[in-house]
Amino acid sequence: MVRSLSETELKPVTWEYAVQAKGLRVKAGRHLAVTGLDLSIGVGVHGLLGPNGAGKTTLMRALATVLSPESGTLELLGRPVQERGADLRGVRRGTGYLPQEFGYYPKFTVREFVEYVAWLKEMPALAVPVAAERAIARVGLADRADRKLKELSGGMLRRAGVAQAIVNTPDLLLLDEPTVGLDPEQRLAFRELLRDLGADTCVLVSTHLVEDVVASCTDVVVVHTGRVVWQGTPGQLAERGGTGDPGDSAAERGYSALVRQARREAGA
Amino acid sequence: MTGVLLYLRARRAPAALVGAAAAVWGLWAIWAGMAVPGEVPDQMGMAATGFAAIAAGTTLAGPDTHLDHTAARPWPPRRALHLAVAAAVILGLLLSVAGTAHDYGDAATVTRNCAGALGLITLGTATLGGARAWFYLAPFITVPPFLPLSRTSIDSTAGQILSWPLQPTTSTTATITAAVLFAAGTVAYIHRGPLLTVRH
Predict the structure, then answer these.
(1) ipTM of the shown complex
(2) What is the pairing mode between strands A95-98 and A227-232?
(3) What distance in Å separates the CA atoms of residue A141 and residue A139, rounded to the nearest whole number?
(4) Rounded distance, CA A19 to CA A39, Å?
(5) Please, which residues have CB within 8 angstroms of residue A117's CB and are 6 or more apart in sequence?
(6) Residue B199 is nearest to which of A90, A101, A108, comparing CB atoms?
(7) Which residue of A has its CA nearest to B62?
């Protein structure tokens, strides 16, 4: 049933940027949510910040190959993804994705859920149990691996979602709101996991929590109305804010200043 | 547990099988219990076929179409195999009562109706999503029992198209209608898969 790999797929692909987008436009339903976005990111942990409706989730879906771009160019893991005959299979094998909400598999245990996604990612059957075990342990659910998903709390469910996203040891990891529902202790542990993953993986984390970005990201991308309006380090983000900008920390004030400026420019 | 077993469980295949069997054997048992001689009426036959197809339709999309969509595993051949197995199971269930005093009609009628019903379900899955897959098929189950239709009363082409499940197998129009529905639904589903529900 499973088709053998073509020569193109077997050829090793090298890349500098795990994600390279130019003039990317993506629709969410009938609404154009990503409106000409340019982005290049490589290994490291990248925080994706932006107000509601900025196009963060649509961008994540496009990078996860769930949505197809309307126009522009998009290269993931060194492979162009819009062309006819694009190596989507290779991209998907190397990508992990945690959607903002994931569909419910209530009768699956955590282990079964993670193993199922490993199977979807075409991991070798013999490697699946060990990989699933490792991914579950990394998110701190080892003692609940045989619990059904319907028995888990929101935070544990979120961690199970992260486990399925990292089971294939992806080169590109896309996490949409991964810290929703996590308690403070779990959030701290998750930040550490992110830093660990970012050592050899391109991790893009979409979040509203500026403090998570500052604590765990090497790079920050701010989007507004479907475009990147700023990209820099957390330290540079902190320098952008002034005393008049709202926020509890320098980084939050910097983020507020950027969003205000983007709103003014969009209005103009 | 192997991936295929997990796939079947993710698609709720065991529950769907129970549902399809309950529809087919349940309606047959009701008719048999009423002790009316002869085969099950066409309307009831279509209802059994339709409910079995709806049960099968629940397996055509997973709980999370987005996660499924990011699978490296190529879907089109898997979808084709899935449909072939679903069709075989429904046909097998409907023909399992063949030869009894109250069967669902001859094999040709059962096959035609099964193909048409699956076509409508797959078309619904591809264009409306897994949750609304039943939408196009529902009228063919719910309306016929209330219409004074009989196999001989409809001569117009439009009438034969609209009442294709109730036509005799000699009706080429009805057979073509079912074949077109099956082909359109199968191609749409295999090629596109279940409609992606975009959540905001």
Answers:
(1) 0.86
(2) unpaired
(3) 6
(4) 7
(5) A164, A165, A167, A168, B67
(6) A101
(7) A103
| pLDDT tens digits along B10-35 | 999 999 999 999 999 999 998 888 86
How many residues can be counted in chain A?
268
Express each pLDDT in B111-129 by its tens digit: 999 999 999 999 999 999 9
Q: Pick from B150, B172, B180: which is nearest to B163 by CA?
A: B150
Using a 10 angstrom Cβ sphere, with 0-12 exposed, 13-18 middle and 19 or more buried, the burial of residue A189 is middle
Q: A14-94+172-179+206-268 domain in CATH 3.40.50.300?
A: yes
Contact criterion met (CB < 8 Å) for B7 and A119: yes
More confident residue, A71 or A4: A71
Instruction: Name every chain B residue with its beta carbon within 8 A of the beta carbon of A90.
Output: 72
Cα–Cα distance list, A191 to A63, A107, A196, A250 (Å): 22, 29, 9, 19
* DSSP string for residues in chain B: --HHHHHHHHTTHHHHHHHHHHHHHHHHHHHHHTT--SSPPHHHHHHHHHHHHHHHHTTSS-S-HHHHHT-SS-HHHHHHHHHHHHHHHHHHHHHTTTTSTT-S--HHHHHHHHHHHHHHHHHHHHHH-GGGTTTTTHHHHHSGGGS---TTT--SHHHHHHTGGGS-TT-HHHHHHHHHHHHHHHHHHHHH-SPPP---
* Domain residue spans of chain A: 14-94+172-179+206-268, 95-169
Candidates A113, A120, A175: best to mutate against B (most CBs of B within 10 A) is A120
Q: What is the pLDDT of residues B142-168, one digit of tens each?
A: 887 666 655 545 678 888 888 898 888
DSSP secondary structure letters along A157-212: HHHHHHHHHHTT--SEEEEESTTTT--HHHHHHHHHHHHHHTTTSEEEEE-S-HHH
Exposure string over A35-45, b if 16+ CB within 10 A, otherwise e: bbbebebebbb
- Which residues are CB-neighbours of A237 under 8 A, at least 6 positions away? A210, A213, A214, A220, A222, A230, A251, A254, A255, A258
Question: Is the model's pLDDT at A1 over the cut of 90?
Answer: no
Could you give the C-alpha distances from B56 to A137, B52, B67, B106, B173, in angstroms and in order? 36, 6, 21, 22, 26
Residues of A in contact with B9 (CB under 8 A): 107-108, 112
| Interchain CB distance below 8 Å, A108 and B196 | no
Residue A248 has pLDDT above 80, yes or no: yes
CA-based nearest residue to A89, from A4, A163, A14: A4
Token reading at B167: 């036509």
Please report the pLDDT score of residue B89 as a whole number: 97
